[in-house]
Design goal:
296 residues; mainly alpha
Length: 296
């Protein structure tokens, strides 16, 4: 695959993120305006529409036009491997645990009323968790990473989309001080590398997506937030005594904190080691098969 086609494909992948998001957003806003169905259902439809359109666009553009198979895009038949489901739960709980153990603070509960509580949880699950989690994995790890891998090599394929992943999240902030932005770029890049290694190890975006999905649900899905001040958008806030951006994560929040970055690095290191062992085993298998082939 030539360079122009890869760059064109990368641009299309980013455009799909917005093209799939806009109709779902319009649908949700329209349903909320006419009040035909409850707000939580409208939000759920937004998340489902966002994901469905992303999959449709990817299949049409990269399946039909680029002639890439489901396996090429790391999008085989949906299935999950148990170790990554376990990792999906342990990772955010471990980061929260580090806060509770090593960062002084106190818990504040925010009772917004039953209707609002349901709305917050619904938005967290369908829009932030399932919608963003699966969409970003399909586009960054399924499409972008594999396009770059076909043109260059695995290192470029892992690093470049991961840096872009950090930049996309940085662009979501309207006003971000330099140090906050730098910390977010480090966190976003390391998160991207971690997700990329999961996808490479399993040859499937579904495993990286479940880790991404549950991370979003627990860390920014409306249930719990960790900050130096109470939030009226979450059911619970662990209010930190410290205002250090190393702990708070700055403008982006705890997902870019030193605790989170440490967790990303540990998981990425373990995955990198596992991939190297996997490659060594394949090499040894091929070498052991050569003499047998020569003797035929």
């Amino acid at each position: 695959m030539n360079t122009k086609k890869v760059i064109g494909g990368a641009i299309l992948a980013i455009l799909i993120k917005f093209a799939a998001d806009f109709p779902g957003m319009l649908l949700c806003m329209g349903l909320l305006q006419i009040k035909v169905i409850p707000e939580p259902v409208s939000i759920a439809l937004y998340g489902i529409t966002y994901l469905a359109l992303t999959i449709l666009f990817v299949k049409l553009i990269f399946g039909k036009w680029f002639k890439l198979s489901k396996e090429d895009l790391f999008m085989p038949k949906f299935s999950l491997q148990i170790p990554y489901v376990i990792l999906a739960v342990i990772l955010p709980l471990a980061v929260c645990g580090m806060y509770f153990l090593f960062a002084k603070g106190h818990m504040v509960f925010n009772d917004m009323g039953q209707t609002k509580n349901i709305g917050v949880v619904t938005e967290g699950f369908f829009a932030i968790s399932v919608g963003s989690g699966f969409v970003e994995e399909i586009l960054f790890r399924g499409v972008l990473m594999n396009l770059l891998k076909k043109r260059w090599n695995t290192m470029v394929a892992v690093i470049a989309p991961s840096v872009l992943f950090g930049l996309v999240h940085l662009m979501e902030l309207e006003d971000c001080p330099f140090l906050d932005g730098l910390q977010l770029m480090i966190a976003g890049t390391m998160t991207g590398i971690m997700f990329s290694l999961i996808a490479l190890k399993t040859k499937s975006v579904w495993n990286s997506a479940i880790v991404h999905c549950i991370w979003n649900l627990i860390m920014c899905g409306g249930i719990l937030t960790i900050s130096n001040q109470p939030s009226d958008c979450f059911l619970m806030t662990y209010v930190l005594d410290s205002k250090s951006i190393a702990l708070t994560g700055g403008e982006f929040g705890s997902e870019s904190s030193v605790f989170a970055i440490f967790a990303y690095c540990v998981v990425a290191a373990v995955l990198l080691f596992a991939l190297k062992k996997q490659d060594q085993a394949k090499t040894e298998t091929v070498k052991s098969a050569v003499p047998e082939f020569e003797n035929i």
